Fold:
Amino acid sequence: MHIMMVASECAPVAKVGGLGDVVYGLSRELELRGNTVEIILPKYDCMRYDHIWELDISYKDLWVPWYQAAIHCTVWSGLVQGRKLFFIEPHSPDNFFNRGDYYGFSDEHMRFAFFSRAALEFILKSGKQPDIIHCHDWQTGLIPVLLFEIYKYHGLEHQRICYTIHNFRHQGIAGVEVLQAIQLHRPEYYLHSDRLQDNFNPNALNFMKGGIVYSNFVTTVSPQHAWEARYTDQGYGLGHTLHVHKDKFGGILNGLDYGIWNPEIDPHIPYHYTANNLTEKYRNKEALRNRLLLKPAYKPIIAYIGRLDAQKGVHLIRHGLFYSLWNDAQFILLGSSPEKSTNDYFWHLKNYLNDSPDCHLEIGFNEELAHLIYAGADMLIVPSLYEPCGLTQIIGLRYGTVPIVRAVGGLADTVFDRDHSDKPEQQRNGYVFQNTDYTALESAMHRAIDLWYNGPDQFHQLISQGMAQDYSWRYAGQDYINIYEHIRCQ
Structure:
């Protein structure tokens, strides 16, 4: 099959969060299975151009319809770790993608409405004819609409769309002026409850809803989150739309790229190890302590790696830090917040704990340090209020770092409580708590710390069971191929 991925991110060249990792990892897996995969991105000025090989012009004069005229674009192509990518560069005073950042602008809806129209125009004019167009998140939600309302009448009648939602919280809410810009000229037709009308604001369009309605199949990034999106407030108002389209909606757990996250070959850690050689893991623990100036001591290291925002359970992260220190454990945090007040608070906390020999807070992000923390820590807390999939806990399992997670989304699909899970004992791999209060987190952390001190053999067994589980892209890749084959027959 020929699959065209269209997204706003692809690691490592344009990455803000997990979306970039998924687009790259899934594309790689699909190619390994014999498919042709190409990826379309905006040409941001802030991309990691050092990761692009053979960057060259692929299509010189692409004219993209916009309002009553057209915008001239250049389409570049290049290789990113073996993947073929196309980058759309508009030459417009709107300056859509030359702003020094990927997101965060007041005209976000217009930027990605243009990108959606440009991506389809490029597919059409270049004559590529992919079997599947795989779109991601609200930024590409208008592609299915444009394909089935315009482009199928101009030469793209055989293409089918798979649409993956990574985060229901951001849906692309906009006014009807977007329709005029992308030349969908019947606002009363599209601003209908069965099409693009937002479920709460009758005068607004919802890009993500359009993607759901018009796609041939819709996925989200874990089976548990698919259920949550339909039946709880984690669908952020789209539960009814998902119910209407339930026959084409499902959850597929994201995979982890074991070529990058693998303690046997990881270039970012000083000592490589397997489940049969955990002595080397503990040498990484010593290296981690040395790097962060923590006291050498017979204590477990508990870590948090990730964003510091409401979704991740900031109050529980803070409490987990102090609970660790109160209970003979050391704590390491690596992360930052998009919100200044939260970032400032953790800087204050860092200064307050600066002299502690058992604690280190690294405000920001450092890829190399992240790998060393995964390799050197004993446990990892992931107390998210909601978590569509989560990669942190999967990386932790791969590195023998026991996850302590809240039972939500992909966390519930990948971590099974050592003491209370209904899974067979050999499939249990961590600690799980249900509620969002301090007591729930303390219960799980207490059981993990107690086992580390009083049952080291059982703790090593728990590590081995986690490392033995396969959360690579192997299974998800096959699931997506099954979906592609299914919708090709429609």
User: Anything to note?
Assistant: The first strand starts at residue 2 and ends at 6. The longest helix spans residues 108-126. The two ends are 16 Å apart (CA to CA).
